[in-house]
Amino acid sequence: MKLLLALVGLLAILVVPQPLEGTAPAVLGEVETSLVLTCMEEAKRLVDKAYKERRESIKQRLHSGLASPMELLSYFKQPVAATRTAVRAADYLHVALGLLEGKLQPLLPGPFNVTDVLTPAQLNLLSKLSGCAYQDVGVTCPERDKYRTITGQCNNKRRPTLGASNRAFVRWLPAEYEDGFSLPYGWTPGVKRGGFPVPLARAVSNAIVRFPTEQLTPDQERSLLFMQWGQLIDHDLDFTPEPAARVAFITGLNCETSCLQQPPCFPLKIPPNDPRIKNQQDCIPFFRSCPACTNSNITIRNQINALTSFLDASMVYGSEDPLAMKLRNLTNQLGLMAVNSRFSDNGRALLPFDQLHDDPCLLTNRSARIPCFLAGQTWAGT
């Protein structure tokens, strides 16, 4: 009888799939949680390293006077303050998922979505370890508010984070990706969308720019100011920063010198007969927009909006409390905006100077000795 029980137990061990590291997870729940933890630790190390390298690189080029106009523009489009914290958490999450996919790929036949082989508990663990799960924790709204909030939180009592800064964009239509959750269309050559090939981005821009000048007709009702006003409104409603890294998170590949596609690198390929770039093997460096944490569905990549999505002149007043306080004149109780104490424009007030440790405006134009201005958005102060 004991021998029979032992044989039955051995048979059960052989038949029932065991969740072991290094074995193919055939069904949901067979990925070891220890592997999930290891990938998250590695993701944090890689993301922090990439962030630090980018920060030190741009500082070095600014101090040496070698920073190009493109690099200076990139500097002002980097995530800062609370936006940087939110983006870093989302990067932790997506890089950890990428590492998990890389480790499981040799064990699974064909393409797969890594989130499909993780349990809800494991996905929740990733959200907590990355910091995404805590971004909306503790948002409580008072019953009555005399004024709107700078961050946009609680402006909608039923949905406190609706329109708030540093949240994912609210979509009219769900995001569509090549793999269903992250890869943009055009990432894999030959993959069609709706049965049609995806054109190269460079080919589309060439076709638009190549529009015959003689076919252009002036608008009889609107001037150029109409476009400029629209651009100002756009700057009030949304801003998605560039990645805080210029290397591939997992491999360390330099995105600015390589044509390989590795997140966040998404270089633009050169189409045949390009009017300016003759080498079709060359490419244009391009980077994916910063991701956002979404607690409702962490498996689908969304982009972050660093500003309040309300029409509230956030480019003037800011979208975060610390910045809003810096933009105010706190020497009295009049509630006025801070102005420049050193210069004016024929009696008209100018923006105050920013107090940057490594001021790019000073470093790139040492003879003028004029610091960057401070405004509700970084681009407005340059």
From TrEMBL:
PANTHER family assigned: MYELOPEROXIDASE, OXIDASE/PEROXIDASE
Keyword terms of this UniProt record: Signal
Signal sequence, renumbered to the chain: 1-22
SUPFAM superfamilies referenced in this protein's UniProt entry, alphabetically: Heme-dependent peroxidases
Keyword Transferase annotated: no
Domain of life: Eukaryota
InterPro entries, alphabetized: Haem_peroxidase_animal, Haem_peroxidase_sf, Haem_peroxidase_sf_animal
Species for this entry: Rhinolophus ferrumequinum
Protein name per UniProt: Myeloperoxidase
Taxonomic classification: Eukaryota, Metazoa, Chordata, Craniata, Vertebrata
A single BP term in Gene Ontology: response to oxidative stress
GO CC term, one of those recorded: extracellular space
MF terms (GO), sorted A to Z: heme binding; peroxidase activity
